[in-house]
Amino acid sequence: MSDTFDLSKKEVKKQDSEQDPKLNFNLSLLQQLRAGRRPAQIARDLGMSRPALQYHLNQLKVAGLISKLGYGCWEVNDTAPITIKKRSSKTIQVTLDNTPEKLKFLGLPDSVRGHAFLFVLMVPPGLLNWNNRRREEYLKSHGIAYQQLRIAGGGQRIWMGGRKVWLTNNSVIIYEKSSFFAETARDAKHHALMTFIALVKKVEGALHADFTFKLGKEYRFKVSRQHYALVKNALAEQYDHEGKRLHVREPDEGKLWFVIDNSFNLHEAETVHPWTADSDNAKVQNFFNSLKECPVTTDALLTAIAGVTQNQVLFAENISNHIQAVRELGQGVREMNLLLAKLEVAICTLTSTHTPPADLQIELENSMIR
User: Fold this and answer.
1) What gap in Å lies between CA 75 and CA 65, rounded to an integer?
2) Which residues contact 215 (CB under 8 A, 6 or more apart)?
3) Which of these, 192, 223, 300, 333, is most buried using a 10 Å CB contact count?
4) CB-based contact 91:188 (threshold 8 Å)
5) 6 - beta bridge partners?
6) What is the pLDDT of residue 196?
């Protein structure tokens, strides 16, 4: 099952604050490069010389905002200047290039680190010039480095935004290298998807392709891999201290869905199922949060279970005693009825005034037979 990302629902808020004209020009230039426009086209539309535009491109390159892929082909590096970017009050994106030691201070206990994302973007059927031969021709003519994919159907591997991208006839596969720290797995996944969509637009611009469906309204994709780790988890800390690892698999299909490891010394309890990792993480997180609110030890649980078991044994004994008492009571009632019947016969005999009822005589005869 694939997901969709509806582009028509995205809104851009109007900004009223005044900005520096130079900043506006740089932002406009970045936006046009992101859209895949060539420097020659931009210079012509702006009515400026190519050397003048090249000066601004060099300034952006020195600032680390863009990098050159080939002749006349530039890539906008949204994450290049810094390794840690705070996108919202709830989510932090961290790239892992040469920065694992910086991860130690990130994340509160049992907050979530979303990582190891693998996105598969569907290519619209009949996309013009989208086959191995024409893609290779385009990459070569624009000086974009690539490697052949040794897979069925072939393809090319390129690098975009520091991420590995596979180009195949049916899909574009993106390996996300960043970690996304958030309060919940849902927030981490949402931010990863926003980063994925931004990278798709870069790929479209670099390759002059359009991967949208329904006349540019949506992308279709699936998340083939996703990991969500509870950071600085107490159970994980205990396992890591003892040098142990924990792998939990599904009882039916045997798929791995929960592991404990010590990635980047963060003591992580991690959900890794390719399809349900996000929902699994929410359940695990709720369990540990509940355990924090109502802490209980294993000894206390065993004691409570033993107490419940003992109560059940006593209850069973009481039920057995009650059943026996009811049986004895029934026997006593039958004996009392028999005595009353005999008494009534004796009274009738003494007075000789009437004959005992027929049903009473039958009852007496039956009792004598017994």
Assistant:
1) 9
2) none
3) 192
4) yes
5) 218
6) 93
Residue 213 DSSP symbol: B
The answer to pTM > 0.70 is: no
How many angstroms separate the CA atoms of 45 and 33, rounded?
13
C-alpha 63 chain-centroid distance: 36
Q: Which residues pair with 147 in a beta bridge?
A: 157
Query: What was the pLDDT predicted at 223?
Result: 94
Q: What is the mean pLDDT, run by run of 10 residues, along the chain of 370 residues? A: 59 43 70 79 84 85 76 66 41 52 53 92 93 95 93 94 94 93 89 91 92 86 94 86 88 87 79 91 83 70 81 86 87 86 80 58 56
**Contact by Cβ (8 Å): 100, 83:** no
In the chain, domain spans? 3-10+82-293, 298-369
Query: Residues with Cβ < 8 Å from 27, sequence gap 6 or more?
Result: none
Could you give the 3-state DSSP secondary structure of residue 203?
Answer: helix
Place of tokens 């406009």: 28
